[in-house]
Design brief:
There is one protein chain. With 319 residues, the chain is α+β, with helices and mostly antiparallel strands. The protein has one domain. It has a 5-stranded antiparallel β-sheet with strand order 1-2-3-4-5, sandwiched between helices. A hairpin with a 3-residue loop joins strand 2 and strand 3. It is globular and about 60 Å long.
């Protein structure tokens, strides 16, 4: 079986660009203000223990999420620095000391840690605030715990949809969501065996079953089910319970995501992944041709370097 039929790739939108994760390297391509495309190429160092753990169902999801948060933050930081540099005037550039192009280990670890902490804190807020709000509004209305869980899930979805809608109105986030759509289109085109040209890639959907946006909605739905197996007597117990069960919800949600992706070609069962696709209507936007070109450049560079062993973080430029 060819590599093209078996390889499974993922990616992430960054500011004015796209990151793709390969087997051996992560590559980010960013469109600069002068229309050049620059790359951040970060090799994946062999980690036998993590590789073994990531084969264990339910645990692999948590490990993968933490790893993605760490890696993603590094590439997002690179794109943010490139964007800030392009927005800086020549006078401001002259007034600042020249920065080194090469990332050192301390910087990489620091950015990765911030990414992990940001994800954990964000997930805790998103998990605990709806539980508190539901308890505050409906805590004394009835005793049925399953109904409380359903209302908590509904509040989470409302919070999520409102948050995504309002941030998507800002120009920078709207463009980020366009690059998210470009990332999905390239992966869909590759998986369909299409030629990776702008015209061919644009024919594909901006929605994809394996997206992290789908994972978010699954955490809400799976959480409602898992929380229904437990009871609480007061808000403190409820909050503690949510914190303790959070890794379980994340692990199960990851398996559900993989399951729905595996079943997406079965006529009836493919509908299991539809809620995640609906959410992507907010988290992705139709990209323009230039954005698709950046996504293709990132993907092709990743595929090229994936066949090589890269010793260190490398910054390069393409006209």
């Amino acid at each position: 079986m060819s590599d093209k039929s078996t390889a499974v790739y993922g990616g992430q939108a960054v500011i004015e660009g796209v990151m793709f994760a390969g087997k051996h390297v992560h590559v980010t391509a960013v469109r600069r203000k002068d229309q050049q495309i620059t790359f951040l190429e970060v090799p994946r160092k062999p980690q036998p223990f993590l590789a073994a753990v990531k084969k264990i169902p339910f645990i692999r999801g948590i490990i993968g999420i933490v790893e993605s948060a760490a890696k993603g933050s590094q590439h997002l930081t690179y794109s943010a620095e490139a964007y800030a540099e392009d927005e800086t005037t020549p006078e401001e550039v002259a007034a600042k000391p020249k920065q080194k192009e090469r990332w050192n280990l301390t910087m990489i670890l620091g950015v990765a840690l911030v990414g992990i902490l940001s994800f954990v804190v964000g997930k805790l807020i998103f998990t605990l605030v709806p539980a508190f709000v539901e308890g505050l509004i409906f805590g004394q209305a009835f005793e049925n715990k399953i109904m409380h869980n359903l209302l908590e899930g509904a509040i989470k979805i409302v919070f999520l949809l409102c948050y995504l809608y309002f941030i998507s109105q800002t120009p920078l986030i709207k463009r980020l969501f366009q690059y998210h759509g470009a990332e999905h289109k390239v992966i869909s085109a590759f998986e369909a065996g299409s030629e990776l040209t702008v015209a061919e890639v644009q024919k594909h959907s901006r929605l994809h079953y394996r997206c992290g946006s789908s994972f978010i909605i699954f955490t809400v739905l799976v959480g409602v089910i898992i929380y229904s197996f437990f009871t609480w007597d007061n808000m403190v117990e409820r909050i503690i319970q949510r914190i303790v069960l959070l890794p379980v919800v994340l692990g199960v949600s990851f398996e559900v995501l993989k399951w729905t992706n595996a079943l997406r070609d079965i006529p009836v069962l493919k509908w299991l992944g539809v809620p995640g696709l609906w959410l992507q209507l907010l988290t992705t936007k139709e990209p323009n041709d230039d954005q698709v070109a950046v996504s293709i450049a990132s993907f092709n560079r990743m595929r090229e370097l994936d066949q090589q062993i890269i010793p260190s973080v490398v910054l390069s430029k393409q006209a």
